[in-house]
Amino acid sequence: MDIPSVLSAYRRQAPIYDAVFGTLLGPGRAATVELANRLTGRKVLEVGVGTGLSLPRYRSDIRVTGIDISPDMLDIARRRVADKKIPNVDALYEMDAEALDFGDGSFDTVIAMYVASVVPHPDKLVAEMQRVCRPDGDILVVNHFAGTGGIRGNFERGIAPLSKKLGWRPDFEMEPFLRSGTMTVIDKRNAPPFGLFTILHCRNTRPMAQAAE
Ligand SMILES: C[S@@+](CC[C@H](N)C(=O)[O-])C[C@H]1O[C@@H](n2cnc3c(N)ncnc32)[C@H](O)[C@@H]1O
After folding, report:
1. Cα dihedral angle (114, 49, 124, 44), rounded to 10 degrees?
2. Is the pTM of this model over 0.70?
3. Which of 13, 65, 173, 206 is in Cβ range 3.0-4.6 Å of 182 for a Cys bridge?
4. Which tens digit of pLDDT belongs to each residue from 199-213?
5. What is the CATH number of the domain that holds 53?
6. Which residues line ligand 1 (CB under 6 A)?
7. What is the mean pLDDT of the chain?
């Protein structure tokens, strides 16, 4: 994946995104926001917020900032916030998740839903999520991770050359993704449909800057 491919994939998908992926990715999205709502942290950053399908679900005392690289997806998110009069969304910015324009430790909770296998450099995504999350804050990720073998693994590897058209990498693996950061996984669970998605709850135990010292 590269930024021009992401922009063109989500320019194409934006008008149909809610109809297609609202339901398909809905259970993992709802479960991830529910998890965020159970945490004490009130300052949330959602990277790759897309069309903002998650935004009406946050607890009303949580302040949410969303960022996305696709202006087409963000237009829909902004309309949703205005139409539904969602009061606790502080801002929606056009921004690269791999180079966030926020200070270190700015948020209690940083969330990426179905984004990790889309960004060009997932290791930079992890580094930035850890940097802007406060030490010991929470990092929540829901994503599809590639199966290790069998029919599913073969299928995912088979369609991997279509990544740029699909707008995500079907052969994206969990272990290298986690190894690229220094956060600690405290819970891992499957999400529907068919357990195809995984929700990772991580603690920002050793923010990257500290880990390097
Ligand atoms: C599959 S969609 C997920 C959208 C939303 N999180 C959801 O739950 O429906 C992936 C989103 O990641 C965004 N994205 C991809 N690369 C990005 C980057 N480098 N920085 C910010 N957003 C990015 C895309 O524009 C798209 O809106």
Report:
1. -110
2. yes
3. 206
4. 999 999 977 666 555
5. 3.40.50.150
6. 6, 10, 21, 25, 29, 48-50, 53-54, 67-70, 73, 96-98, 113-115, 118-119
7. 91
